Amino acid sequence: MISYVDNFALTAASLSNRGNIRQLQELCRTIQARAVRLGISFSVLKTELIYWRTPRQRNSPVGLSPILFDGEVFHPRDSLRCLGYWFTPTLSTTIHFSRRLALAQGAFAHIRRLSPPGVWLAPYLCHRLATSLVAPILLYGADLYTPNVGSLTRLNTFWHKVQRWATNCFSSTLIGMLAIESCLPPIPLLVSQRQRQSALRTVCSPPSVNPAAARLHPSFPSLSAYPAPDCSRAHTKGLSSVYLALSWKTPRPFPPIPNHLPIDAVANRTITFTGGLSTVPTINAHLVPESHPTSPLNP
Fold first, then answer.
1. pLDDT digits (tens, 9 = 90+) for 78-120
2. Please, what's the largest Cα pairwise distance for the chain?
3. Nearest to residue 141, comparing CAs of 194, 201, 213?
4. What average pLDDT does the structure give for the chain?
5. pLDDT value at position 59?
6. Which end of the chain has the least Cβ crowding within 10 Å, N or C?
7. Cβ distance 148 to 93 under 8 Å?
8. Quick one: 178 exposed, middle or buried, by C-beta within 10 A (0-12, 13-18, 19+)?
9. Closest by alpha carbon to 8, among 29, 31, 26, 25?
10. Cβ–Cβ contacts within 10 Å for residue 31, how many?
11. pLDDT greater than 60 at residue 193
């Protein structure tokens, strides 16, 4: 899978660590051989390794083996970054939002030097800096990740400082009034907004543009009803209750059922907007690039 321009992600699944290592090494050699024919080389030293395991495997006393490639040994990591998202074997969001919080605090420290409290920048300019600079850094990844209680508390504490700075309120001002005075919604509302916007972009995209749209439940009223061949829904039929293919109108169960497709819970966030529609329209279904004036295809 191509992650971004020149980054590749290789994923292998088997019943043992040795099987995974063998498959990954064969894939690496295959891709490297193809790249040599194209005159392309890879930076092997930047390779990172992470194992995804079930809860039963995580509790196993057997350790995880490193991988050997081009004479370099790569030991498994506890966290892995891809496109700004931090992934862990347990898919915990704590590390991701801790790093986003640190980046946002650094950016906020710089813009506070531009405008000390009560001078220089007007409140509406402070508000614009908070919404256009601090919030995108702080909430990057919130469309995919939901912060837990501890992360949400730390994000809110920092966001209260931003609200006070934008309005020049006293430190004794009630927290409930900060969002109203600064016109900066609380973090839970901002997270919910970003997740719903991301869900709308997914369900309104054709599978040719966003492959995740091909994993929508068959009951979803989409104009592009083309399921992906690897959507694994066939594996969830006729099995025990822990394997469940959720309808798009079914809210995420609590306690959560770990063996349903995440796209089912994503589509559920669009009920408020698409509940009354017979079919959900698709956008960008046909992308026709404009011809350049100097293009040989343009007479």
1. 888 888 888 888 888 999 999 999 999 999 999 888 766 656 6
2. 70
3. 194
4. 79
5. 67
6. C
7. yes
8. buried
9. 31
10. 14
11. yes
